[in-house]
Design brief:
Length: 132
């Protein structure tokens, strides 16, 4: 069933008399039935958005360190995957830190995937989902 968040109610008096053939009547609707015209959001300020974009670039550079290491080193990729599959959190975090990542991160892994979340508190973050 379709839900209309702005119901339109037609009052019987709007249609009580048939329209005249040569007369175009413009009907005004009561104000309480019209769509709201005031914006409930604060004025647009792009300062925080631009700040987040600048900070996200630094986070992406940190993510690039990890992905470059995995791509360039077969041994590192093997060790990281093995530690994750064995749920050896200390080893996984040590390996990730060894890539040069200096910011805070969280890791989650399953037997078939790896997820690392790079976090910049109060601003933004990047989540890498890597499957194997």
């Amino acid at each position: 069933m379709y839900y209309n968040p702005y119901p339109y109610f037609v009052h019987p008096y709007h249609y009580s008399a048939p329209p005249m053939a040569n007369h175009l009547a413009v009907r005004s609707f009561p104000q309480h039935l019209a769509m709201p015209t005031n914006n409930p959001f604060p004025p647009v300020d792009t300062h925080k958005l631009k700040s987040s974009v600048t900070r996200i670039k630094a986070i992406m550079q940190q993510a690039q360190l990890l992905t470059d290491k995995i791509e360039s080193s077969q041994q590192f990729a093997h060790d990281l995957m093995n530690a994750a599959q064995l749920s050896n959190k200390a080893e996984v975090e040590k390996l990730i830190s060894s890539t040069g990542i200096t910011m805070k991160f969280e890791t989650n892994y399953t037997p078939d995937s790896f997820r690392i979340r790079l976090i910049d508190n109060g601003c933004c973050g990047v989540i890498l989902n890597l499957n194997w």
